[in-house]
Amino acid sequence: MSINRVMISGNLTRDPELRSTASGMAVLNLGVAVNDRRKNQQTGEWEDYANFIDCVMFGTRAEAIAQYLSKGTKVAIEGKLRYRQWESQQGEKRSKVEVAVDDIEFMSSRGEGGGGGGGGTRLPASGPSPDPMPTDDEIPF
Q: Which pTM does this prediction carry?
């Protein structure tokens, strides 16, 4: 058995990009900055370092929430890691690991953008997950 679950919270690094596939499915691309703390070996001080994480949502939920997100919005995201490969227009092979969003929670109040704390509205990304995680009540031990 393997587990592929990711939980991150941070601020959107850019306005979300909403597109559609050839079949008409909505695709929402998000960039999230998640801070990490490390001790600087030279100064001995703790410093924040940003990790930039690409996230993607699919379906009608992605289309519906796109209007409520903007650069600086604080979000909490739950999903799974997904490895993707493609070929650029110049013929170069490209790849990346991104988070396929299952649930998203707005941590900023509406119109707050770059602030913290606030709203806390949780929305599933797109209906039930095809492989839902069991709840505590469903685990037999």
A: 0.73
- Residue 38 pLDDT grade (very low, low, confident, very high; cuts 50, 70, 90): very high
DSSP per-residue string spanning the chain: -----EEEEEEESS--EEEE-TT--EEEEEEEEEEEEEE-TTT--EEEEEEEEEEEEESHHHHHHGGG--TT-EEEEEEEEEEEEEE-TTS-EEEEEEEEEEEEEE-SPTT-TT--SS--EEEESSSS-SSPPPPGGG---
The pLDDT of residue 109 is 66
Q: pLDDT for 58-81, tens place per residue?
A: 999 999 999 999 999 999 999 999
Mean residue pLDDT of the chain comes to: 83
Fold of 6-38+45-127: OB fold (Dihydrolipoamide Acetyltransferase, E2P) (2.40.50)
Give the Cα separation of 141 and 139 in Å (integer): 6
